[in-house]
Amino acid sequence: AIKDAIRKLEPCKEEVVVMDAGCGAIPIMGIYAAMNSKKVKCTCIEINPNACNIAKKIVKNLGLEDQIEVIMKDAITYKPEKELDLLISETM
Prior knowledge:
This protein is an alpha/beta fold. It is 33% helix and 23% strand. It has helices at residues 2-9, 28-36, 49-61; strands at 16-21, 40-46, 68-72, 86-88.
């Protein structure tokens, strides 16, 4: 579903703005989105400081810092700076 959504958005957008709310220690959904298009700019949000730090390291190790920003916030109250094109959330 993420791949399909990005493919639909790509032709009409210079940048596809994605948010992965509650990304956890391994922001797999944000990473998947970024790996599907260079146009993706993803903000991964995680409230747990330990999980957030791990997620930042993973994004850096994958060399995706130019596409993915990991921030420690509460996704429920977070207000994005740009209008979102795609919201991803896989919380349990």
